[in-house]
Amino acid sequence: MNSTNEREGFSERLQQALKNAHYSPDSPTRLAREFNIRFEGRPITVHAARKWLVGEAIPTQEKLRMIAQWLGVPADWLRFGGDAGAANGDGGNASARFESADVKLIADLQRLDEHHRQLAREFIRMLVRMNHQK
């Protein structure tokens, strides 16, 4: 695949992942803001986010992994395409794949303030422990 097609394919998958997580695929400003909130490295500009959305550029691997984690999609799918729900035979991280309802839940969790996010995490851990004790 040539680099233009790779960038366009990435752009389409990024837009789909944003839609599935209930973010607008049409707002580079929002993408840059949401990305910069989560990314510990150097922040991106709105111009960089726009280039990702319109298929003019692909983020670095580090940035791509963070976007995939944030949006609840496999990084390999976001970068290269293919079946996001298929089982990875190469030992890939199956827990990185979520139902769309799970992606929405994660997006909602990220919208909470830190105190409420911590309460939600503790509640989920408690439910997991209770489930394992059955």
TrEMBL record:
Give residue ranges for domain HTH cro/C1-type.
Answer: 51-78
Instruction: Give the protein name, as stated in the record.
Output: HTH cro/C1-type domain-containing protein
Please give the superkingdom of this protein's source: Bacteria
What is the scientific name of the source organism? Answer: Massilia solisilvae
- Report the PROSITE patterns cross-referenced here: HTH_CROC1 (PS50943)
Q: What lineage, starting at the top, does this entry show?
A: Bacteria, Pseudomonadati, Pseudomonadota, Betaproteobacteria, Burkholderiales
